[in-house]
Amino acid sequence: MSAPRSKRVHHGITRVALDGTDSALAARATGTSWRDSLLRYYSLAKPGVLYGNVMTAAAGFLFASPGYIDWFLFLAVCLGTTLVIGSACVLNNVLDRDIDSVMERTKKRATVTGGVQARNAVIYSVVLGVTGMTVLVLWTNVLVVAVGLFGYLAYVVLYGMLSKRMTLHGTLVGSVSGAAPILGGYVGASNALDAGAVIVFLILFFWQLPAFYSISIYRHSEYSKAGVPVISVIRGISYTTVQILGYTIAFVAVSLLPQAFGYVGWSYTIVMGTLGIGWIIMSVAGLKTANPQKWARLMFRCALVIMTSISLMLSIGPRLP
Questions:
Q1: pLDDT, tens digit (0-9, with 9 covering 90-100), for 207-255
Q2: Are 295 and 286 in contact (CB under 8 A)?
Q3: I want to staple 293 with a disulfide (CB 3.0 to 4.6 A). Which of 23, 218, 271, 320 is the partner?
């Protein structure tokens, strides 16, 4: 099974990226020593994406563990999730060699420069994936395994191989896979698909849309050159800005649901409500900005702060008044 080959570019698992981090690592991994080789393979796992996703998985687990925390289970969920996500990221690099060669921020990735051969990268991906799933199967529960498989296939196949290259709705599909880690963390602790599972999934789903629509604006020229059908290229920057505002409001509304369902107290709501109002105000500013690229960069940086904050507050919120 192979992806359609075209001059298209990757834009996102949360895809929770520290934008450019992975490319910088790949650029430095150009030597021939064993350390340089390790760095090349490390960069293929997209550490910026990887750590962001694992942070949300940990948050989901702790959110579902308001009392006793099973630390062994916590470590098993986080380790298995890390390896599975890393496997998906490595395979995505292999599939995206054509489009990565077009983008300025990705053209120095090891799979593009030849620093890591495609065959070796695929083997590396399989080892990571099999090891990760083994950890999840042996030491977690069926729901975690199911979410892990779903997230993997959604990211690699539905997003990476299909929707990203074919439709402006690729970001919506990618946001489903990006919300899988926090859901996996939650069901790892609760072993249940309940209201809390739906809430944490929707929180991360809606967070990704303003975050990555912002990227599509400030990297508009790169996406356009590569022929990627992101929303800003197909519908325009003004339309994308309106969508960012709408999804930001949706995120804030969903992020305030935990108290309504009895999972957290006022401390969580005050913190996330304040941050959420600030993010909405920033989104509104985009409707009349004279420099949408500058605004979009600021919007994305704010999104990273919001994501870190929501992960922290979901982790400690059940333990605060």
A1: 999 999 999 999 888 888 877 889 999 999 999 999 999 999 999 999 9
A2: yes
A3: 218
Q: What is the largest CA-CA distance in the chain?
A: 56
Token output for 151: 């997230």
Position of tokens 């870190």? 308
Q: How far apart are CA 26 and CA 107, in angstroms?
A: 9
The two three-digit tokens of residue 140, written as one number:
């977690």
User: How far are the Cα atoms of 92, 172, 283 from residue 15, in angstroms, in the given order?
Assistant: 12, 12, 21
What fold does the segment set 21-319 form as a domain? Farnesyl Diphosphate Synthase (1.10.600)
Q: What is the reported pTM? A: 0.87
Give the span between the Cα atoms of 285 and 290, in whole angstroms.
10
19 in the Ramachandran plot: left (φ > 0), alpha (ψ -120 to 50) or beta?
beta
Residue 65 carries which side chain, given as an amino acid letter? S
Residue with tokens 């022929």: 227
- Helix spans in the chain (H): 21-28, 34-44, 47-63, 71-95, 97-100, 110-113, 118-139, 142-153, 164-166, 170-178, 180-190, 195-218, 220-226, 231-234, 237-255, 257-260, 266-285, 292-316
How far is it, in rounded angstroms, from Cα 301 to Cα 152? 26
